[in-house]
Amino acid sequence: MSNKIIIVTGASSGFGKDTVKKFLNDGNVVYAGARRVERMKDIEKLGAKVMKLDITEDESVNVFIDTIVKEHGKIDALINNAGYGAYGMAEAVSIEDAQRQYDVNVFGTARMTKAVLPHMRNKKSGTIVNVSSIAGKLTTPMCAWYSSSKFALEAYSDALRREVKGFGINVVLVEPGAMNTGFFEVAEKEVRKIDHPKAYAKSVDAFLNAMAKAYKNPPSTEKVVNTIFKAVNTQSPKARYKVGTDAKMGGIMARLPDKMLDSILISMYS
Ligand SMILES: NC(=O)c1ccc[n+]([C@@H]2O[C@H](COP(=O)([O-])OP(=O)(O)OC[C@H]3O[C@@H](n4cnc5c(N)ncnc54)[C@H](OP(=O)(O)O)[C@@H]3O)[C@@H](O)[C@H]2O)c1
Q1: Residue 127, SS3?
Q2: Tens-digit pLDDT profile for residues 135-152
Q3: pLDDT at residue 187 tops 90
Q4: Is the pLDDT of residue 234 over 70?
């Protein structure tokens, strides 16, 4: 049992909600943030401190963090989990949608991190866990914006880890493969709203079929949740954890020569 002050973003669904439960079970104080507060009633009943949070808005982030600091004077861990996949062919996704993708997955994470860091530096301790993806290591057709947002998150986290290590703060990346959350439902909606040129129709279908297959019987969130929990409760965690067989395979594939990888991925998605 521990008594840490923990923040989890994207707590209305998937990894975020299950991570909240795990930390509550261990006796921590858990602040759960997301836009759809009505979807967090169950974790509120379990003891989570639920607050509306939109990580794309400075005001929302500042109110969220100020409330916690007023109530407890410290933050032990920030789990930057909120995110989604804006999939679609690079030619067809609007710049507005691409910017929105970065505003959540990259700048939203940065907004939360900037607000939390002064408090962790003061205490000379803390852990920041950034939920990335295997898509932050390896990209496929249809994945230009989601993947590049996660590649950016990986580089951001590597720089940050090296900047704040000396203040006693750990920065950890978690890189899951496909898992059973609300992710696929949101991703599919993103694809279906795009008006792709006919020339891409077969590739878009191939991608959606591959996604549907990957998400047909996906593993539960358990391994990701346990990895996040371990990262927060380990003195010296690893810089990154790949979670899931597909994530581990993806990590190996990412090291293949470009020409070989191109031909594998092009044939898979056409
Ligand atoms: N599941 C997978 O297969 C998989 C694989 C690799 C990586 N990931 C990553 O895992 C993380 C969590 O996703 P998930 O799989 O658990 O999907 P999910 O079930 O769809 O949950 C996503 C969460 O992000 C929140 N969110 C989205 N936009 C937000 C915003 N502007 N402000 C605050 N919260 C926001 C959503 O809450 P509201 O909509 O209520 O705000 C929701 O709680 C994401 O970063 C995703 O990229 C998922």
Answers
A1: strand
A2: 999 999 999 999 999 999
A3: yes
A4: yes
Ligand 1 centroid from CA 81, angstroms: 6
49 is annotated as an active-site residue: no
User: Could you tell me the distance, in angstroms and rounded to a whole number, from the CA of residue 186 to the centre of ligand 1?
Assistant: 9
What are the CA-CA distances from residue 133 to residues 51, 83, 130, 240 (Å)?
A: 26, 10, 10, 10
The pLDDT of residue 93: 98
| Helix (H/G/I), strand (E/B), else coil: 170 | strand
Which token pair is 188? 């599919």
Query: Of the residues 12, 147, 149, 157, which is catalytic?
Result: 12
Which of 57, 125, 117, 113 lies closest to 81, judged by CA? 113
Considering the candidates 17, 22, 49, 150, report the single residue annotated as catalytic. 150
Provide the pLDDT for residue 38: 98
Range 5-265: architecture per CATH: 3-Layer(aba) Sandwich (3.40)
Position 1 scores a pLDDT of 62
Q: Calculate the average pLDDT of the chain.
A: 97
Provide the sign of the torsion angle of the four alpha carbons 2, 16, 220, 254, taken in this order: negative
Q: Is the pLDDT of residue 270 over 90?
A: no
Angle at which helices 201-214 and 183-192 pack, to 10 degrees? 170
Atom number of ligand 1 nearest to Cα 182: 19
Q: What is the separation of C-alpha 212 from the centre of its chain, rounded to a whole number of angstroms?
A: 20
Check if 146 is active-site: yes
Residue 191: Cβ-neighbour burial (10 angstroms; 0-12, 13-18, 19+): buried
CA-CA distance, 209 to 138, in Å (whole number)? 19
What pLDDT score does 66 carry?
98
Instruction: Compute how many other C-beta atoms are within 10 angstroms of the C-beta atom of residue 135.
Output: 22
- 150 tagged catalytic: yes
